[in-house]
Design goal:
Blueprint: E1 12-20, H1 22-32, H2 42-47, H3 57-72, E2 78-85, E3 97-109, E4 114-123, E5 126-127, E6 129-137
Antiparallel strand pairs: 1-3, 2-6, 3-4, 4-5, 4-6
Protein name: MaoC family dehydratase
Pfam families: MaoC_dehydratas (PF01575)
Family: Belongs to the enoyl-CoA hydratase/isomerase family.
């Protein structure tokens, strides 16, 4: 478990990249029940004005918190998590879309031993989640 007293604001506690493929989207759709065609059919995505097949927002959100879960060593330590979706993640028919997640300490509450970790999730050097904040109980 991370040591609260060794943390400081601005400290990067995790950084990880993830590759999303169309297969990832199919698996997520099966697990979540979200079979919206914009997540697997280019023709439908393009017909509604999207740049292509998009990763599910909740998949992007779930992937983004994973480095913090690993850092905290227990998902039960996550006490709050929120994001704003700002840009879509377009997943090509072949190859992959790469997400880069960086987690940094933004606030320390010494009274409760809670840490706010801010996430920066990027795709093609563009931030795709805004106000991505995770509160961790240490």
């Amino acid at each position: 478990m991370p040591n609260f007293s060794e943390l400081e604001v601005g400290q990067v506690v995790a950084k990880k990249s993830y590759q999303l493929t169309r297969d990832s989207l199919v698996r997520y759709a099966g697990a979540s029940g979200d079979f919206n065609t914009i997540h697997y059919r280019d023709d439908i995505a393009l017909s509604v004005g999207l740049p292509g097949v998009l990763a599910h927002g909740m998949l992007t959100m779930g992937i983004s918190v994973q480095p913090v879960v690993e850092w905290a060593q227990d998902s039960a330590r996550i006490v709050d998590f929120g994001v704003r979706f700002t840009k879509p993640v377009v997943v090509p028919a072949s190859g992959f879309a790469e997400l880069l997640v960086t987690a940094a300490v933004a606030q320390l509450d010494s009274e409760t031993k809670r840490v706010r970790v801010d996430l920066t999730t990027t795709f093609e050097e563009t931030t795709v989640l805004g106000k991505a904040q995770v509160w961790v109980q240490l």
